Amino acid sequence: MVQENCIFCKIANGEIPTRTVYEDEEFRAILDMGPATKGHTLILPKSHAADLYELPEETAAKVLPVAKRVAALLKEKLGCDGLNLVQNNGELAGQTVMHFHLHVIPRYENDGQRILWKPTEPGAQELDEVLAELQ
Ligand code: AMP
Ligand code: ZN
After folding, report:
1. pLDDT surpasses 90 at 116
2. Over 90: is that where the pLDDT of 92 sits?
3. What confidence category does residue 23 fall into, taking pLDDT thresholds of 50, 70 and 90?
4. Per-chain residues with Cβ under 5 A from ion ligand 2
């Protein structure tokens, strides 16, 4: 299903022309227009889902194989030295386009990017409490 006024629905389904790196029946992978690095690609399902929570399981199961293909392409053609997969859900987590997308970000020596978080130092008890909350 496509959602009206969703730019990634329009892009994924070819209504708005874009730079397509890979396409199959269910996905389109495009060049990000504000790339972190050369070759930064977004994998978009053609069917609308706002985020991971809304993404049907069957679609979710097909995303990683697409990411593997794109990753191989980026390595083969652009010679990247590493790769980050990033997937933001919710405004608080940095999601700006509310149509599920997986970032495939090739990394190069001295590319000046940092896709990291600041580790904290919880004690064993705190970790045990979190685990208990999740059970
Ligand atoms: P996120 O912050 O995870 O929602 O990522 C949204 C990404 O989409 C950003 O990296 C934008 O640069 C990219 N983006 C937004 N609009 C377009 C567009 N029309 N074509 C290509 N990339 C886009
Ligand atoms: Zn959409």
Report:
1. no
2. yes
3. very high
4. 3, 6, 8-9, 48, 99
How far does residue 27's CA lie from ligand 2's centre (Å)? 12
> 94: Cβ below 6 Å to ligand 1?
yes
Q: How far apart are CA 39 and CA 113, in angstroms?
A: 14
Query: Which residues partner with 86 through β-bridges?
Result: 103
51 lines ligand 1 (CB under 6 A): no
Distance of alpha carbon 135 from the chain centroid? 28
Task: Let me know: does 67 contact 43? Beta carbons within 8 Å.
Answer: yes
d(CA 97, CA 57): 21
Cα–Cα distance measured from residue 20 to residue 41, given in angstroms and rounded to the nearest whole number:
9
| Global pTM exceeds 0.90 | yes
**What residues are annotated to the active site?**
101
State if residue 95 touches ligand 1 by the CB under 6 angstroms criterion: yes
